[in-house]
Amino acid sequence: MPSLIALDIETTGLDPQKDAVIEIAAIRFNGSRIEAEWDTLINPQRPIPPAITALTGINNDMVRNAPPIRAVLQDLADFIGDSPVVGHNIRFDLGFLQRQGILHLVEAIDTYEMAAVLLPTASRYNLGSLGQILGILIPNSHRALDDARLAHAVFWQLYQRALELPIELLAEIVRHSEPVEWDGGWIFRQILRARSRQPIEARQTRQRDYEGLFTADYRPAPPLTLVETPQPLDEDEVASILEPGGLFARYFDQFEYRSQQVEMLRAVTRALSNGEHLMVEAGTGIGKSFAYLVPAAMWAIQNNTRVVISTNTITLQEQLINKDIPDLRDALKLDLRATVLKGRSNYLCPRRLEALRHKGPETPEELRVLAKVLVWLQEGGRGDRSEINLNGPAEREVWMRLSAEDEGCKAEVCVSRMGGACPFYQSRQQALSAHLIIVNHALLLSDVVSGSRVLPEYQYLIVDEGHHIESASTSALSYRVNQSDLSRLLQELGGLSSGVLGRLTTLMKENLRPSEWALLHQTVQRATDLATRLDFDLKQFLKSIEVFMENAREGKPVSPYGQQVRILPSTRKLPDWTEIEIEWDSTNETLSLLLNLIADLHKGISEGLDRLGEEIEDTLANLASIHRRLSEAQAYLNGLVSQPDPSAIYWVEISPNNNRLSLQIAPLHIGPLMEKYLWHEKNSIILTSATLTAEGEFQYLRSRLNADEADELILGSPFDYENAALLYIAKDIPEPTDANGYQRAVEQSLIRLARATGGRMLVLFTSYAQLRRTSQAITPPLLEAGIQVYEQGEGASANILLETFRESDKAVLLGTRAFWEGVDIPGEALSVLVIVKLPFDVPSDPIIAARSETFDDPFNEYQLPEAILRFRQGFGRLIRTQSDRGVVVILDRRILSKQYGKAFIESLPQCKVHIGTLNELPAITTRWLNL
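Structure tokens predicted for 3'-5' exonuclease DinG:
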């Protein structure tokens, strides 16, 4: 392999058309050896934005006497020559330099593309994270020379890793990359050459046999035979397990008896035994997981039945399946079978994977996902989507075409065609024999509404994180579509020479007489013409909606918050809407013709051949899937435009980040569905959470979920909040309505408080825009004080941010909705929690607005209880163990000035409350924390 160049640049921004280069570094290397380095600062001939200075450390003084970019271009071009150029997201760097007239013909090697394939399970693919994953000590400093050195080190580690792959796998990746423009193609060709020159003994496959990517020798336990008359549990016997001297106390060294935990366990035991529904609010620290797991396990085993446990978060699912249930099994010495079951789209379909391998990828995204999946499976991947990192909507779209989300795929087909190797089939078989099945809320209700396509029959259900069941079900049962979704669907359908129709035409040529094939060809030509016409009609239809949205904002630009317009009966009477209806009528007519033609085509081929080959069957299954998705779009769009369902909410949205228009539909109520499919159908449902009540009452959640028949139980936390938590309410901060004064006060308060405490602070916002403004203001002064500021939305996942924050000595973490709950940082790493604003929903949000209209007093009956539940969740982030101590700061004086404010305070556990000034805040906080 020739010498390569690692290249990195720093710029004033992300747009090559408008922004300028401020630093360039290039490293010539051969293998692990660096041969030469070249770097320089560049005068951008414009001010460097403060955010870029904060990121890179490069300020205006540093570049004042640096050369302009024109003065260094030839020197840089000479240094690089015709060597291939390596970099992370290298097209970004090349875009700036090629605009200056150099490096147009160099071969590009993107370390992102290499990492995406070779590290399929990595949580993040930015350069710094890859350095950490690969154990490289070079810092990701956002200075060009450091980052070029890091890119070289990452490249070399990935290159070595690729040489470990089976030669057949490398050859397949190279073969698939030949017709596709991909910035990993050149380097994988070099890797294959190097691999083929290795001696035979060095080529032994390090992991599993490449061709045996899926294991079909799966032998599940036999399905449970459900009993007709279950036997009740002995309540005292079950309770004794968690009581002093019981099995848990004997098994776990650090086990603590908690009376509230045993009280909850007894209530759950009675509900299961008596076939009753129950709502339990279990305060932080009770240990509610074991309070329901112990009786659920005993009940399932004693009656040879299954209990479904539904959670909102993956974190809790993983805790249950990987820790709590194994501990329970060992402590009680039970033959307890448990499994996690997900929706079909979460599992890889071996049949669809083989079809893509045979056909070959057509886009860089298809190629990247295919190569990633093959490497993942070769390294022991189990076919569960959660194990790999899929980046962006394009990769997720490819996954959907590889997933088990296929209506026509039945268990018997899977067994006959793939020998039972399908991960979804295997997980479904496991679920049939499991005592405990763990699912998420989104799957729970969408499964029962759609006729139980995933979950096996069950009569007993435990819903943990129960305060989320409405929002999770709303998301699962909502529909959203935009121009690119519809275009991708039509592209997937294709025509005479592309997509599903093209493949079908080619495959059928060998199976039909010339006259029959000519008729098929004519039909596919008609479908192609209709699809082209539909694509045009859809664009005209969406353009008419864009005009409607523009008129709604009176011709002004889309605001930084985007634009949402609910479609109400009155909206459909506006003159603008008439134009939308005309365009939809034309679109709908074309769509109906196309759907009828696809249905006839599918039926004609299915019934016209005695035997269908596997490839034809797969292609017909894809055609049926496209028909289903187009039919779904037609039904939803028909409702939005002219035939609304009174139980649905319709709105049009333009997103703030990319100005993309989308059409959205959501259910107005979840309660009737819960009542019909769960409360009235199941023998026993237990709903639990740390926050189910507002102002000490279950009434709000009862009404939202139609839970009229459920018994209720409130159990307080065993923690000593009186001595552990100080609630500090700032009495002199401006009201949020004074936008500028309020924002300045928030920023100054956070800076002074963080300096006083040395960070160790989580700040919760209700708006991402305010979070960004605050971050920009507080980051420079806090960095000067040695305090790092981490913010949600910088590209890192919530889990990565939390891990980084936990491990930092002096840090402040800024978060929005995802951080109001589920954050568990015990000890001194989190000593101060700041709630910037009371967490009311935005009243104009279409779902909030529509649901508000169903109440006589929407604020007190709906918006206030929702805000109190979220407020309680936020407060609960602070005290996580008996020994924790901390301060919760409220920077919203409405809690004092408004009549509803005391409802928030009274909803909290009994703790020390101090109402004081912003000036007093740092001193009182440090005194409480003994700093």
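The chain has 37 helices and 23 strands.
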